[in-house]
Every structure is written in structure tokens, then in C-alpha cells.
Automatic annotation (TrEMBL):
S-adenosyl-L-methionine binds at Y29, G70, S121, M192. Binds 2 [4Fe-4S] clusters. Binds 1 [4Fe-4S] cluster coordinated with 3 cysteines and an exchangeable S-adenosyl-L-methionine and 1 [4Fe-4S] cluster coordinated with 3 cysteines and the GTP-derived substrate. This is GTP 3',8-cyclase. It comes from Paenibacillus oenotherae. [4Fe-4S] cluster 2 binds at C257, C260, C274. Keywords: 4Fe-4S, GTP-binding, Iron, Iron-sulfur, Lyase, Metal-binding, Molybdenum cofactor biosynthesis, Nucleotide-binding, S-adenosyl-L-methionine. GO terms for molecular function: GTP 3',8'-cyclase activity. Its EC number is 4.1.99.22. Monomer and homodimer.
Amino acid sequence: MSALTDRFGRVHDYLRISVTDRCNLRCLYCMPEEGVEFAPSSDLLSYDDIVEVVSVAASLGITKLRITGGEPLVRPGLDGLVKRLAAIDGIRDIALTTNGVLLAGQAEALRAAGVNRVNISLDTLDPARFKFIARRGDLNRVMEGIEAAARVGFAPIKLNCVLLKGVNEDEIAAFLQMAKEQPLHVRFIEYMPIGHADDNWRNHYLPLSRVLEIAEEQQLGIGRKEGIIGNGPSDDYTIVGGAGSFGLIHPVSDNFCQRCNRLRLTADGGLKPCLYWVDELNVKSSLHNREALRGLFMRAMDIKPLNHEMAAKLSNEAQSHEPTARRMSQIGG
């Protein structure tokens, strides 16, 4: 059994690495529009630090990496980091999550460096609504990024759509049609209360059963799909006669904690066993000491809880642990 096996028998082979908490958008479900305090550059893990941590993680059984942010493409020289990570013995797959705004100009270099797959955030197909949700930026640049991802050979290309009641739920049908017409994997994601379990979250939360209802209303022939690379917690579906597919990621209405295989490394050095809870182990004091770093990963296995309690938070039930106060952009999506 892998060294990174927690108390509940879950084997961990996946590390999500945030390289920055900064972002060129301000998506309303992720971070406030103003007043965001970013970590000073001096507090962030250097690329040398990240390579060191991943080298130890790989020796313990980590084989898959995902580069996240904030928006990872705002940090200079990312392709150089990817090239170094891809060269680490044991690392077999590197993926990237991005909002796509800067992807067109970096896709080729990232593909050459060793990124295999990309997830691109796309919460709307309407330019005006994009401005409302993201509070800045240009939908056209995201679409150019998707085109560039296809051109350089990323596969599969996944589009992450966070559904918000009263904001973009009326576009579910359009996204399903997009998945039918294009060789893309559209993933609908429930709005999570990471760092802000407030009335705004409760008012905009939408369970993903609505997606299947609309697929039925459209009379789309759908069936369960297996084998999508890196599908993780997504329940995936085919569309009869479709070029693409779609998936549902429902951490609130139907959590998938029993299948969790991941750890997170924040940009400022926090090793998080669970996205939702406050627990973090800071790797900085253990850098340049492989045994100490190994110990932190083993400790993460010891303290990882059985599950999160987002659904309980939705109904204002008591929590068994302390939820994180960090926003998604500060942890790594």
C-alpha cells in the first residue's frame, strides 16, 4: 500500500499546487471585488521550493500534479517550473487549471514543458454576464485560450462552470449543447462555501440535479461515461450523437470524500489535507530536510478527516471541525 494512505484507507497520489494567490479576475464566487490582501511575493514558495516539496511527495507515491492559483498564468516563468516538475521521477501527469485569459499566449510553451491537460473556467457564454461574474476581463480572450488549447494538443479540454442560482442557471441548456457540438468536457460545479459560508452562498447555491432535469427537458440521450482522464470526483455523462461530454461535481449535495485522493499545497506553503477545514501544515520550516518534509506528508495523512460538512453548513447545522477562513483563491482551486 502507498505510503500516503490515511486512517480511512484512502490512497493519495494527487497533489494540487497553487503557485500564486493573485488573479486577473475577481469572480464573485471566489474572491471579493476589492480589498483583497495578497501574500507578499517574499512569502510565496519559490519554484526551487516547490520542486523540492514535489520531489519528496513523489517519493511517497504522488504521481499526479495540478497547477492552480489564484490564476497560475500570472506568475512569470511557469513553463520553466512545469519542465522541472515533469522531470521528477515518479511524476506521470501534470494538469493546469486556469481562467483562460492568458492561455492563448502560453499554451504552446506549457504543452512543450509537460502540461498534459487543462481545465478552463467558463461560467457563462454571454460577454455581458462574463463581466458581471468575473467583474473584469474579456470573454473573447477565454475563448481564444480554449482554441489555443485545442490547437496545441491538450486533451481532454475541460470547461469548469460554477452554477449560481439566479445568475447563470439559465445557460445550462447552452452549455449542454456546447458539449454536444464540440469535443469538450463541460463540468458543472456546485458553489462551495470556502471561506464565506454566508447568505450570499446560500442564496446562490444550486444542486446539480437541475442539470439532469434540463438534459431530460431537452430530450438529450445521456448515459454514464467512464474513463475520462483525470475525472476525479466528477460523475460523467455522454450525449447520444455528441462530440463531447459533461460532468457533475457536487461536493455539497452528494460529497465524494470517500474517494478523495488529493492533498493541496498553497502558494505560501500550507499543506492542506482537506479543502474545507482549517488544518494546514506549513512546509517552509522543513525545506532542505527531506525527512522533515516526509514527516509532514505523513502527518497530513494522520489528521485528514473522514469528510467535510458543507451540506451541514447549508442547513446551519453545527460543524465538527473549524472551517477555513481562507478563500478559494488563497488555497488553490
